[in-house]
Write a structure and sequence with these properties.
single chain, alpha+beta, Split barrel-like, 2 domains, globular
Length: 233
C-alpha cells in the first residue's frame, strides 16, 4: 500500500457520513444527498438506502455514483483538511457481516433496517480523488486503497469486539479519552481490522490506529493490551 492510499483509507474509516452524488433519472442532472455509511474490513463503504429515497430511484436507472468523505470538521480553515471523492457504482448486497458492521456503526438504524424498502449497498469504487490540504492532491486507484483483511482476523471480529465491550469497557474508554483526546463516557468499539479499531459514543465516532498491522486475534489482543498500557502510563 502506498502512502496516499493509506491516507485515503484512514480518512474513509474515520468518518461515518458523506455526500452521495447520483444522476437524476430522466435528465442525468447531478443530485447530491447526505448519507450515513460504514466500511467493511477492507474499507469498502456500505450504505443503507430506502427505495423511496431520490438517490435510490436514480440508481435504478444508472448505478454510477460518487461519495464525498469530508474530514474537515472543526478546522478553522476547512480547505487545509482532508477529503476524498470515491468514484464508482453502487451495488445492492445481501451480506450479514456488512449488515452487522453497519448497525454497529449506526445503532439507530436497527429500528428501520428490516423494513421492506431498505437495502444495503456497497460502493464499488474504481478510484478516489484525495485532497489532503493545499498542493496535496492525488487520484488513487482502488487497489491502492482497499486492504483485504486476513481471514483469521475477519472471522473473529465479532468475538473481539464483543469481548472488549463486555469485559474491557474501561479500556475502550481509555483509548478514546487518553489516546485520542475525546471526552465523555460510554465509548464502545464497533469494529476492528488489520490497521485499527472503530469507536463510537452517541453520535460521535473515532478511529484508533494500531502501531503495527495485526493478522489474527492473538495479535489483536497483544496490540490492544499494549495500547491500554500506553493509555494508563
Amino acid at each position: 500500500m502506498n502512502e496516499t492510499g493509506t491516507a485515503a483509507r484512514r480518512l474513509m474509516r474515520s468518518q461515518d457520513r458523506g455526500s452521495l452524488a447520483t444522476l437524476l433519472a430522466g435528465d442525468g442532472t447531478p443530485y447530491a444527498s447526505l448519507v450515513l455509511y460504514a466500511t467493511l474490513p477492507d474499507a469498502t463503504p456500505v450504505l443503507l438506502l430506502s427505495a423511496l429515497a431520490e438517490h435510490t430511484k436514480n440508481l435504478k436507472s444508472d448505478p454510477r455514483a460518487s461519495l464525498l468523505v469530508d474530514g474537515t470538521a472543526g478546522l478553522a480553515d476547512p480547505l487545509t483538511g482532508a477529503r476524498a471523492t470515491l468514484v464508482g457504482r453502487l451495488e445492492a448486497i445481501d451480506d450479514p457481516s456488512a449488515r452487522a458492521r453497519y448497525l454497529a456503526r449506526h445503532p439507530s438504524a436497527e429500528t428501520y433496517a428490516g423494513f421492506g424498502d431498505f437495502r444495503f449497498y456497497a460502493l464499488r469504487f474504481a478510484r478516489a480523488h484525495l485532497v489532503a490540504g493545499f498542493g496535496r492532491i492525488h487520484w488513487i486507484d482502488a487497489a491502492q486503497i482497499l486492504d483485504p483483511p486476513p481471514p483469521t482476523l475477519a472471522g473473529r471480529e465479532s468475538d473481539i469486539v464483543g469481548h472488549m465491550n463486555e469485559d474491557h469497557a474501561e479500556a475502550v474508554g481509555l483509548y478514546a479519552t487518553r489516546l485520542l483526546g475525546r471526552s465523555g463516557e460510554g465509548w464502545r468499539m464497533t469494529g476492528i481490522d488489520a490497521e485499527g479499531a472503530d469507536l463510537r459514543r452517541d453520535g460521535e465516532v473515532a478511529r484508533l490506529d494500531f502501531g503495527t498491522r495485526i493478522e489474527d486475534a492473538e495479535a489483536a489482543r497483544r496490540e490492544l493490551v499494549r495500547l491500554v498500557k500506553e493509555a494508563r502510563a
